[in-house]
Amino acid sequence: MSISVGIDKIGFYTPGLYLDMAELATARGEDPNKYLIGIGQSQQAVIPPTQDVVTMAANAASQILTPEVKDDVAMVLFGTESGIDNSKATAVYLAHLLDLSSHTRAVELKQACYGATAGLQLAADYVRVHPAAKVLVIGADIARYGLRTAGEVTQGGGAVAMLVAANPQILALEPVSSYHTADVMDFWRPVYRTEALVDGKYSTNVYLDFFKTVWTDYQQQTQRTIADFDAFAFHLPFTKMGRKGLRQILPEAAADQQATLKAAFEASQEDNRHVGNLYTGSLYLSFLSLLRHGQLTAGNRIGFFSYGSGAEGEFFSGLLQPDFRQGFDDAALTQLLAQRQRVSVAEYEAIYRRQLSNDGRDVRLAVGDDDAPYYLAGRQNQQRQYRHR
Ligand code: CAA
Q: How far, in Å, from the CA of 38 to the mean position of ligand 1?
């Protein structure tokens, strides 16, 4: 008999600052409803220079790791497209910061917003072969398009940490999934750039095309239809994108099921609406949001659409487990989001420009305003200085 493998625990971190999207719209000469309704974003995480993907991942992962669990972590798979080094993996810094055993494999995975999904599937396959092992999977990014660009309203950032294990508390992954790759120039970031290049409208069309392809293929492989699903979680670069994805397949469902799926979507976009895009973590923040705000019960089947520009798409599914509410700290996540401080557009612009420079000079950052457990104190001799309080 095959063992049940999937997501056992989830942690999430985003820094303590946010920008109001109605205020940004006004500053950019746009109707606030374009951002609030047309794009579907209310707030956007603002990432201070004292947080990067390594510290955000450490702040997310430390929520789900006890000393006993740390001993069982056989691999760290770090999905990101906001890497800090072209050679050394963020996962190695992370494993050290979290004080994991040196008997751990630690690597970084990159394919735009798809990296964490690659990590999740590789982790699940590993645990199917090594059922006593646990794998820490990270999806962490900082979405940057630039001040006054069309993509600015779709920025954000944060980290999701997932523990993949046998007999998981939250979600048992079903083994069949459908994936699709094509060489597409919809969004990319050459190594000499700190901001992404994007063909925005085109990228939204490729997203929907990929969803159609993998959803059709998944149904052919499994003989399942939309009637077999209780909810869908989408990669949410901005919440309207997932809404468009759902609308594409909703006519396949009966009227009462359409209402259920729409209500589940509202739950799945709630937290993303307040954080913005965290690229490869966005699908998993949306899943967490669905768990937190949705009307779910054990046994529900959830469909996942992962999309990474460039491009890679995957559709897979999982079954919700009886103790799923024990796998994340709902109250702590509510507090994390509620305690964030609002910054003005001028403050956001100043913080945006203060990101760590690419010139290699020594820097000592003002760390006093950052109360996260893990933070970046600066750079010395070309090395990032990570700290833990
Ligand atoms: N009230 C309500 N709605 C309004 C409005 C108003 N006053 N004014 C405009 N709108 C609506 C528009 O009708 C439009 O809705 P539809 O898409 O349903 O037609 C929506 O607001 C957006 O308007 P525009 O299309 O005019 O917006 P834009 O040209 O400024 O750009 C964007 C939108 C292309 C998404 C841009 O923000 C962008 O380039 N973002 C980054 C790229 C991105 O996120 N792509 C997603 C797919 S790629 C991916 O998923 C990977 C990833 O994470 C990057």
A: 7
User: Which bin fits 85, alpha (ψ -120 to 50), beta or left (φ > 0)?
Assistant: beta
Do 122 and 140 share a domain, yes or no? yes
Whether residue 96 lies in the annotated active site: no
Tell me, what CATH number does 225's domain have?
3.40.47.10
* Domain-terminating residue out of 297, 325, 353: 325
Residues 186 and 303 in one domain: yes
Q: How many domains does the chain have?
A: 2
Kindly state whether residues 228 and 182 are assigned to the same domain. Answer: yes
Ligand 1 atom at minimum distance from 244 CA: 18
* C-alpha pair distances (Å), 293 with each of 161, 321, 330, 334, 337: 19, 16, 10, 11, 14
Give residue 358's pLDDT: 87
Indicate whether this model's pTM tops 0.90: yes
Structure tokens at 158: 């944060």
Closest protein CA for atom 17 of ligand 1: 38
pLDDT digit string, tens, across residues 354-368: 999 889 999 999 999
- Range of 192's domain? 173-325
In this prediction, residues 272-300 reach a mean pLDDT of 98
| Residue 1: pLDDT over 60 | no
The structure tokens 């994007």 sit at: 198
